[in-house]
Amino acid sequence: MKTIKKIVMGGALVLALTTNAFAIEGIQVSVQSSNVVLSWPSDPSEAYVVQYRPSLTSTNGWQTLTNAFAAAADTNVTYFVHSNSIDFGSSLAVTYGTNSSSGGPMPPGGTNSASGTNGVIFIPGTGFYQAARLGVHIYGMTNGMVVGGTVQLPLEIALDTTNEIAGITFYADGNPLIGATTDGAGYQWFLDWDTTMMPNGTYDITAKIDFVTQTDETNSLPVTVTVQNAISFPNYFTRNFGDQMWIYAELDDAESDFQIDMYEDDTNYLGSFSGSTTDGVISFLWDLTDGDGDPVTGANLSGVFTVSPSFSGSIRPLFSSTSTATNFWAAETNWPTANNDYYVVAYGPFDTGNAAAKQLLTMLGGGDGTYGGVIHTLNPYNLSGHLSPGNVDQSTAFALSDGTAKTNLLNYLANPAFRSFYFFGHGGPSAIGGVDPTSIIRGTDIQKALHNFMNSPKPADYHPYRFVFIDGCDAGSGNFCENFGIPAIKVGNSFFSTAGVRSRAFLGFTSLKSYNPSEWDWYALMIGGFYDDFMAGFTINTCMNNAIAGSHDSAIVTMSSSAVIYGASDMRHSSP
């Protein structure tokens, strides 16, 4: 969420390379007369940071020679000249990674060069140089590469600051990159990607850095890669199961025979399934009984898939291959339907003086019975006793104002009774919060509090949510929803019922949005109308469309048209 008043942030651009950070690939250095010349393969759309330091002692830090050096426009090689930097009184040696060349003092106009793949270049008598592309890039991912299994790639980052990175979100063709996770601090970030959670195919992969206190975002250039796995599990939410299990996989060979050996808690063999497919899809339901007809009680199950191409006719292929892969499932205990109406409600103040506090709390609480608001709308449906602490009808709403409030809100979210969440304030693909940096709640904070690890085998005590509405900026553009146990896919109620679990949905926005405090009363009517529609039995999708059309406030203030729903868009208040 950003306010109408734009805050412009400034600061010097810095770059720090560590053992887990990487510089330009294919960089070269040469000495020409008294100048050091750097060159590297480039793209006209890129810009670069180049830094220098005379030594690696603590008294000599990196000096930025340029913080936004544009790539050459008409060629694929960019040159940067550090003028008059050579000290001819010192012997000269060029060292680059494991490559080096050496010699005596260079005469004016002479050349000595070395090249490599990445790193810091050292020239005694001149010092150290480093260069990096401005922004964020997935190091080692190149156009045309084929990936499979689980890959881990470091990120190359050159920014004006890193201490306020909320997270890094990855996309495939503009949609959340399924199976991708990242964590890190400072300049040390990695992409961990289980490619088996994506269908085989070709995708444009991008990365976006999200910041906790500014609305600007840094995006990488798209890199086109092909995902290729013999066995994939792209229907990744089927790793959850309730009173039945949906076993699903996609195979690279359409006509294949398969066997699935099932285990309980990794070691207790339960039996196997076998069969064949002609369309490359394995999809069936299991009633959770073993080979003897006894019920399976384990909370964590695994299946070893063994697949081989089948053949028709009398000619057997000269060579045939067998592939194996393991999938994991975690039991989900269905919560009582009454808990669907237990809401955590909060807002993040927009300024330290809380100048907009009255408008915000009355927007949520409902101003003197005249305006809608979330709390005032839910309470007439007998939910007053089902709201998180700090929410009083027509009076107050819980403010995510500082570090203490952050701790309290995470505790409320982790309470197993609560299954719905509404938040109004600053938001993004990786975090929510107020203006106070200590109030920022990252998606990883929520994930750890709720134990929702959708990209890996989950512990049995995880805590999925029924309905989450992040009413801020682009929290709907990434996979923030997965922190609440809601998959970043667009499906229907039947999808969840097939897996034998409760339906669920997440509503957020894919673009930055504005809030004008002078229109808080109209916003209260719009958001109150949304929840009134939902409690009255409309689908989430209908509620969203009514709010976008301004059905409840004469269209004076409407919901952002960038609203997006993940999970079941046809979910109703009465849905299972």
Topology:
Layout: E1 2-3, E2 28-32, E3 35-41, E4 47-53, E5 63-70, E6 77-82, E7 92-96, E8 99-103, E9 113-115, E10 121-123, E11 127-133, E12 135-138, E13 146-147, E14 150-158, E15 165-172, E16 175-176, E17 180-185, E18 188-194, E19 201-211, E20 218-219, E21 223-227, E22 231-232, E23 240-241, E24 245-251, E25 256-264, E26 268-277, E27 281-286, E28 300-309, E29 323-331, E30 343-347, H1 357-365, H2 374-378, H3 403-414, E31 420-424, E32 426-427, E33 431-433, E34 441-442, H4 443-450, E35 467-471, E36 490-491, H5 493-498, E37 505-509, E38 514-515, H6 520-535, H7 540-549, E39 563-568
Parallel strand pairs: 1-38, 13-21, 23-29, 30-31, 31-35, 35-37, 36-39
Antiparallel strand pairs: 2-3, 2-9, 3-6, 4-5, 4-11, 7-8, 10-11, 12-14, 14-18, 15-16, 15-19, 17-18, 19-20, 19-21, 22-24, 24-27, 25-26, 25-28, 28-29, 32-33, 33-34, 37-39
Helix pairs in contact: 1-6, 3-4, 6-7
Largest sheet: 6 strands, mixed
The gross shape turns out to be flat
> What is the tally of helical segments?
7
Structural class: mainly beta
How many beta-strand elements?
39
Give the termini separation: 32 Å
Mean pLDDT: 81
Query: Which stretches of 5+ consecutive residues score pLDDT under 50?
Result: 1-22, 90-120
Report helical residue fraction.
Answer: 10-25%
Strand content: 35-45%
Global Rg: 28 Å
Quaternary organization: single chain
